[in-house]
Every structure is written in C-alpha cells, then in structure tokens.
Amino acid sequence: MKIKQITFIAYKTLIINNITLLKITFGEISLLLGIGTGLKPAPTQQEKEISFIACNLYSATSL
C-alpha cells in the first residue's frame, strides 16, 4: 500500500514536470551508458532540485 502511494506521487510529479523530468532522465541514462558526457550544459538550480526530487522518488519506489 505504501509503495502504491509513493508511485502515485511520482506519476503526478512526472505529469506536472514532464518535459524537465524527461530531459533529466535522458541525461542520467546517457551518463550511465558513458555517452554524451560533456555535451549537456550545466543544469539550472530548478533542474538540480527536480533531479533531486526525482532521485528520491525513484529510491522510495525501489524499496
């Protein structure tokens, strides 16, 4: 039950900030694969905060 509630919050956040979160997700996948490093400009403060929230939501849903 707890995981379903957290997943709903993550889904809601994804809909509200869909463009930014998709950009951050793509950037993280590129870094994990070792491609595209150095090609992305430095993230803005808002992108850093959203990335932090997205990482926390991902960690909470993987429990």
Proportion of residues in helical segments:
over 70%
| Spatial gap, N to C terminus | 12 Å
Rg over C-alpha atoms, rounded to the nearest angstrom? 13 Å
Q: Into which percentage range does the β-strand content fall?
A: under 5%
Characterize the biggest β-sheet: none
Q: How many E-type strands? A: 0
The mean pLDDT is 53
Low-confidence stretches: 4-8, 29-38
- What letter string, H or E per element, gives the SSE order? HHH
Number of helical elements: 3
How many domains? The number is 1
How would you sum up this structure in a few lines?
This protein has 63 residues and is mainly alpha-helical. The protein contains 3 helices and no strands.
What does this structure look like?
By secondary structure, this protein is mainly alpha-helical. The chain has one domain (about 1-60). Helix content is about 75%, strand content about 0%. It has helices at about 1-15, 20-35, 45-60. Helix 1 (about 1-15) crosses helix 2 and helix 2 packs across helix 3 (about 45-60). Residues about 5-10 and about 30-40 have low confidence and may be disordered.
